[in-house]
Specification:
The chain is an all-alpha fold. It is built from five helices and no strands. 76% of the residues lie in helices and 0% in strands.
Length: 178
């Protein structure tokens, strides 16, 4: 029996949730890599724009649009990775040792609360994104459809919601806390 199966008493449900958790970890790793590559691209665009201004005396057309696009990808796809890696800031309270049962319960509910917040933000953002879609808004210089910017944000929030739900299920099925 594997250690994962041992933790859950050999439950098939735990094995399925664990498999889903590992799949979400792989997905968020890929998204974070692509997002950070986009951030490196944004830095490259800014450097080229600065050099071009010094050499040619003009700014590079579309540098702002491309930089915003790359930064949007990086920021939006880093959020699910942070949830997946459990890399968010936490605070240990002074009384945490005395009220261990209470804080364990709270720690188990945090992924569910995070999923709820991300789902709510996704709902609100979806409405605004559909307005952008209906209006056909585009960026100023290169006419990049604004819905593409929103696509990064919406996908990041949707995946974050799923990651948090999987973490919540995993904490329900084990004695681990986040």
């Amino acid at each position: 029996m594997t250690q994962r199966a041992y933790k859950s008493g050999g439950s098939r449900l735990y094995a399925a949730v664990d498999h889903l958790d590992r799949a979400m970890n792989r997905l968020t790793d890929i998204l974070a890599f692509v997002g950070m590559s986009a951030l490196i691209g944004a830095i490259g665009i800014v450097v080229v724009d600065i050099v071009w201004r010094r050499i040619g005396g003009q700014s590079m057309v579309g540098a702002v649009d491309l930089t915003q696009f790359c930064v949007m990808a990086a920021a939006s796809w880093a959020i699910p990775y942070a949830f997946s890696a459990r890399a968010h800031v936490t605070v240990d309270l002074i009384g945490k040792n005395r009220l261990r049962i209470l804080f364990n319960t709270i720690d188990r509910l945090i992924p569910l609360l995070c999923a709820g917040v991300m789902a709510f933000l996704l709902y609100l953002s979806w409405g605004r994104a559909m307005e952008q879609w209906d209006y056909g808004d585009v960026s100023q210089n290169l006419a990049i459809p604004m819905i593409l910017f929103w696509g990064f944000l919406l996908s990041g929030m949707a995946i974050s919601t799923l990651v948090c739900l999987v973490h919540f299920l995993k904490t329900l099925l084990t004695n681990e806390t986040i």
